[in-house]
Write a structure and sequence with these properties.
transmembrane, 116 residues, transmembrane helix, mainly alpha, 2 domains, membrane, elongated
Length: 116
């Protein structure tokens, strides 16, 4: 028992070296990075978040909708006066696009994380 076996006489598995991933058969060698993560850990981390341009698109759509409303109500640009009530429809459409893109990105992130 003191020789690393359990009561049934099986040997305990050897500890995996740092940076090695565990497989069903025991430790398997995966390339370790300088920060201590394995390549598999890096892939999981990268898949968990959206691409940086998703944030730029959603914020851009939000500011475009807000800018349309603010300029039409406070200081209309020359073309906005002629467009009239269409400015509200434009701002509503931009805001709806902002919500749609935000939800699609969030849904994609949740699915990539394995939650849906």
């Amino acid at each position: 028992m003191g020789d690393g076996t359990d009561p049934a006489g099986h040997h305990a598995p050897a500890a995996a070296p740092r940076g090695a991933a565990l497989d069903a058969d025991g430790p398997r060698a995966t390339p370790a990075r300088a920060d201590g993560l394995t390549v598999d850990d890096t892939r999981i981390r990268q898949a968990a978040g959206p691409a940086p341009w998703h944030g730029a698109v959603t914020i851009g759509l939000f500011f475009a909708a807000a800018g349309t409303l603010i300029t039409y109500t406070l200081l209309p640009l020359p073309g906005q006066r002629a467009f009239g009530a269409g400015n509200y429809w434009l701002a509503g459409g931009l805001f709806a696009a902002h919500l749609l893109v935000s939800r699609l990105v969030r849904l994609r992130v949740v699915r990539a994380a394995g939650g849906g």
